[in-house]
């Protein structure tokens, strides 16, 4: 039996939609048992870049201490990138971190580690 072009196109479209719908279903990456036992962790940080200087404020609302570090990547290839020493943000504590480049700042991020 020969399919018409219209039937073939419709069949292909239905197969494509069903494949895409399956891909859109969320898949858990962490087992549910681990998700329930994980306690909230991590200070909330805000960064501000003013010219070549960077200031970050990190507030830890959780009972477990968080060791935060500021990382500054400079825009110029010859400018030295910096990583601050880890600073412990205790429960309900706000810490201030600073860094700078000689010229423009390219990228800024904060890393978090659980205090041991």
Q: What composes the largest sheet?
A: 4 strands, antiparallel
Overall body shape: flat
Distance from first to last alpha carbon:
71 Å
Count of alpha and pi helical runs: 2
Kindly describe this structure.
Keywords: Signal. This protein is an alpha+beta fold and 116 residues long. Helices cover 22% and strands 41% of the residues. The protein contains two helices and seven strands; from the N terminus they run ααβββββββ. It has helices at 5-23, 32-37, and strands spanning 44-50, 53-60, 66-74, 82-83, 87-89, 93-100, 105-114. The strands form two sheets. Strands 3, 4, 5 and 7 form a four-stranded antiparallel sheet that branches. It has a three-stranded antiparallel sheet with strand order 1-2-6, with no helix packed on it. β1 and β2 form a beta hairpin. Mean pLDDT is 81; it is low at 20-30.
Short description:
The protein is an alpha+beta fold and 116 residues long.
Topology:
Elements: H1 5-23, H2 32-37, E1 44-50, E2 53-60, E3 66-74, E4 82-83, E5 87-89, E6 93-100, E7 105-114
Antiparallel strand pairs: 1-2, 2-6, 3-4, 3-5, 3-7
What are its keywords?
116 residues; alpha+beta; three-stranded antiparallel beta sheet; 22% helix
């Amino acid at each position: 039996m020969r399919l018409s072009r219209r039937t073939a196109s419709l069949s292909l479209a239905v197969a494509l939609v069903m494949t895409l719908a399956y891909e859109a279903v969320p898949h858990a990456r962490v087992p549910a048992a681990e998700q329930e036992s994980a306690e909230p962790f991590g200070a909330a940080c805000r960064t501000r870049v003013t010219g070549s200087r960077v200031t970050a404020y990190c507030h830890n609302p959780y009972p477990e201490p968080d060791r935060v570090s500021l990382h500054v990547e400079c825009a110029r290839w010859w400018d030295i990138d910096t990583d601050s020493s880890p600073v412990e943000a205790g429960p309900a504590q706000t810490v201030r971190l600073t860094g700078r480049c000689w010229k423009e700042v390219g990228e800024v991020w904060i890393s978090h580690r659980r205090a041991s």
